[in-house]
Design goal:
This protein is an alpha+beta fold. It contains 2 helices and 4 strands, in the order βαβββα.
Amino acid sequence: MPLINVKLIEGVFTAKQKKQIASQLTEAVVAIEGENLRPFTLVILEEVKSGDWAIGGRTLATADVLAVAAAKTAA
C-alpha cells in the first residue's frame, strides 16, 4: 500500500496547509491507481527541527524558508 513520507521544516506550514498536503497527495495516488487505494494510502508529515536540515552544506532554518516563500509571493 502507498506510504508517502513528507519531511517539512518545523513552523513553515500551518495545520490547514499540512491537511491540504496530505489530502492532495492522497488524491494524486487515487488519480493514478484508483479509488480502491484511498483507504490504504498513508501520508506521514514529519517536521524537522529548524536548523537540522541542510542543502549544499548550508543549514536551513524556519526563517530561511519563510523568506523564500515571502519573496515568491512578492514576485
